[in-house]
TrEMBL record:
Organism of derivation: Thermovirga lienii (strain ATCC BAA-1197 / DSM 17291 / Cas60314)
NCBIfam families associated with the record: metmalonyl_epim
Protein name: Methylmalonyl-CoA epimerase
Keyword Transmembrane assigned: no
Key words of the record: Coiled coil, Isomerase, Metal-binding
Family: Belongs to the methylmalonyl-CoA epimerase family.
Length: 134
């Protein structure tokens, strides 16, 4: 598996509009755009910081993973996304190593990226997203 870069840090927020008052207005990081990813039941806002991004995540449904996360743990860091060169190869390799995968097959994420999640139980408590961007 060839990790390329930390693609983004996912932060669960109750309201992107509210959160942008800090991340954009106070910190001065420009939001590049807001995009809904229906399959994941989230609305996302990406704020690029050099080679990586902050991804603000707002639930679009009460059974969204983000809604459940906030209910349980409150707002805060939700996942780390690492970009890989070849997502299928990475998933195959992790599966061989006995890593618990949430997604055995890639799904679509924001910005047309292909993504797959690794279970926190296999990573020491961090929800890990693998992403491949062409
Ligand atoms: C748009 C896209 C993109 O970037 O392009 C995205 O990011 S989509 C981002 C939103 N989509 C996702 O998150 C999809 C992947 N997430 C999932 O499939 C789910 O949220 C799971 C991670 C499997 C958790 O599922 P669920 O909430 O039903 O189970 P649960 O609450 O019982 O959690 C099982 C165990 O994992 C822990 N757990 C749950 N969510 C966690 C998180 N975000 N970080 C670290 N640990 C976490 C719980 O504390 C619990 O540990 P204990 O048993 O020790 O208490
Ligand atoms: Co993400």
């Amino acid at each position: 598996m060839k990790p390329v870069v930390v693609d983004h840090i996912g932060i669960a927020v109750k309201s992107i509009e509210e959160a942008l008052k800090f991340w954009e207005a106070t910190l001065g990081i420009k939001c590049e755009g807001v995009e809904e990813v229906q399959e994941q039941k989230v609305k996302t806002a990406f704020l690029p910081i050099k080679d990586t991004e902050v991804e603000l995540l707002e639930a679009t449904d009460e059974d969204s993973p983000v809604a459940k996360f906030i209910e349980k743990k409150g707002e805060g860091i939700h996942h780390i996304a690492i970009r890989v060169e070849n997502l299928e190869e990475a998933l195959e390799e992790l599966k061989q190593k006995g890593v618990r995968l949430i997604d055995e097959k890639p799904r679509y994420g924001a910005g047309g990226a292909r993504i797959a999640f690794v279970h926190p139980k296999s990573t020491g408590g961090v929800l890990l997203e693998l992403s491949e961007r062409n």
